[in-house]
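URGENT: need a sanity check before tomorrow's submission.

F., can you look over the Transporter permease record below? I want to be sure the sequence and structure line up before it goes out.
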Amino acid sequence: MARGDRLIRAAPDATEFITFSALLISETGPTQQTLTAAEATPSACLHRPAAERARHGRKAASAAGAVSYVLGYLVVYVTQSGRVEEGLSGINVFADLFGGDTISVWRGVGWVFYNAHFVDVDVPSLVGAARSVNFISQRDGGFAYLYVVPPLLLVVAGVAIARAAGARTPADGTQSGALAATGYFPLAVIGAFLFRYAVGDGGSVALTLVTAALLAGLVYPAVFGAVGGAAAGATAE
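Structure tokens as predicted:
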């Protein structure tokens, strides 16, 4: 079975995981006890007052957005770390030879993860300006399924958020699901700096910061989270 097919078929499990994680985190505070699995279910949330549901929905939004980001990175790491390590081996030989720091696999995986959001990596050139690179688009079509990873996880996050907020209509679900950006955006910005690799005199291999923040951090979670939220609201009982 193709990796893309396995990823899509795993969506129901991911929905349950993100939903439960978001609800559990939203229900836990400094002065609160952790709820049981039965108390943290979406159906239990629907019976709370509207103001309380909204408050828990906002907490769930941040949690679900953050969980989606982390899961997305892990999916790319598990499926691509071997290829990334192989691709970096030649570069690291020269870096080691000239006393430079080698590029870690986790950092290279981060570049690919952002490439899946259509965020390019700026690579300095020995002659002329830096060039923008998307490692996924430069490989054969077998890696195109990576473009599905962030949207799929964010749609699932939108479903989880809408359920936690008790959304009963597509409009309410859309508003709730879009809040996935509140958890996704901070990590997207942090990652853009974390995955930077310094080379030479002040140069660096780095993600395009504006695109990483606006496209990966805001547009992706807001749009796809809203889609998931709308679906959850439309199917709410």
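My own read: The longest strand covers residues 203-207. Residues 3-234 form one domain. If you see anything odd, call me.
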